[in-house]
């Protein structure tokens, strides 16, 4: 997903077009009276299953989604922008499809197991640019990046999920990130509701990249340390945020679905103490999003 902060109008148009095209392609699909959220795959899984039989028999099942999120322009920002982006999820045929949960990223599930998932993951990370906020004058630009790593999740029951991710960015200033989360998942009819906590840890290098201020930057931007003797801020590794995420998905038919989601996180520890956050932004970070997804099989 690529966000270009200097072209907000294009982002809005692209997001609207993505979602409109996806929804418009499914006019007849909404009449799916035979849908059963607890009907398992051939193996009798108790997890919710939404995939049509032709897709079911495929070796791999691919889910492609068009997404549009409204969230902070950069980490710690008090200004918000719209970001359209695609996502892809790949799993083995015969596995029950699990509920879409906010922030799962681009994943490939390598295990043929109904209780445990494991595989590679990639996430887009937005950057920080002067165009995002004039108060950033003098602070270094942080280009957008892609974080890659591995994920693992365990379903204790069909209602409870625990997930962990370990990722590292591709740019020189990037560091390690570990995200932990849990979700309560409840299907009812063609809807699926999810809610759960989130915690994120970052290495010292990642914290300094996102929340640190060096002496040169402080000399150019007197907003970060107004009338104080402190002219540098060097955060260390630790928990950077804690919060929660929720979503409501509607299964239009066996292959199409639409999801609304919301997340909240509060920057804590050294991240929350950063002058970039306290002086120029906000420790409380909110986001809202919509997505339309299509699943198909490949052999």
Automatic annotation (TrEMBL):
One of its GO terms (cellular component) is cell outer membrane. Keywords: Cell outer membrane, Membrane, Signal. It is found in: Cell outer membrane. Residues 1-30 form the signal peptide. Pfam families: MipA. Its main location: membrane. SUPFAM superfamilies: Porins. PANTHER family: MLTA-INTERACTING PROTEIN-RELATED. Belongs to the MipA/OmpV family. This is Outer membrane scaffolding protein for murein synthesis (MipA/OmpV family). It comes from Pseudochelatococcus contaminans.
């Amino acid at each position: 997903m690529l966000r270009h902060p200097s072209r907000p109008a294009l982002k809005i148009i692209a997001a609207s077009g993505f979602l409109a095209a996806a929804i418009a392609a499914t006019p007849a699909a909404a009449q799916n009276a035979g849908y059963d959220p607890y009907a398992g795959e051939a193996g009798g899984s108790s997890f919710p299953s939404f995939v049509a039989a032709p897709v079911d028999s495929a070796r791999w099942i691919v889910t492609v989604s068009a997404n549009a999120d409204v969230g902070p322009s950069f980490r710690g920002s008090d200004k918000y922008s719209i970001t359209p982006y695609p996502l892809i999820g790949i799993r083995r045929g015969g596995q029950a499809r699990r509920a879409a949960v906010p922030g799962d990223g681009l994943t490939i599930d390598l295990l043929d197991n109904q209780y445990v998932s494991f595989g590679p993951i990639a996430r887009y990370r937005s950057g920080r640019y002067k165009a995002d906020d004039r108060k950033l004058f003098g602070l270094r630009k942080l280009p957008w990046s892609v974080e890659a790593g591995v994920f693992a999740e365990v379903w204790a029951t069909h209602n409870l999920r625990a997930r962990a991710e370990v990722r590292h960015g591709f740019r020189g200033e990037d560091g390690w990130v570990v995200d932990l989360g849990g979700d309560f998942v409840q299907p009812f009819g063609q809807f699926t509701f999810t809610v759960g906590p989130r915690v994120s840890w970052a290495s010292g290098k990642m914290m300094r990249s996102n929340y640190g201020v060096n002496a040169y930057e402080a000399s150019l931007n007197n907003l970060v340390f107004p009338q104080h003797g402190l002219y540098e801020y060097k955060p260390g590794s630790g928990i950077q945020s804690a919060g929660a995420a929720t979503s409501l998905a509607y299964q239009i038919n066996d292959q199409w679905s639409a999801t609304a989601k919301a997340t909240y996180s509060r920057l804590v520890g050294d991240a929350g103490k950063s002058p970039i956050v306290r002086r120029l932004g906000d420790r409380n970070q909110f986001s809202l999003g919509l997505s339309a997804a299509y699943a198909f099989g490949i052999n």
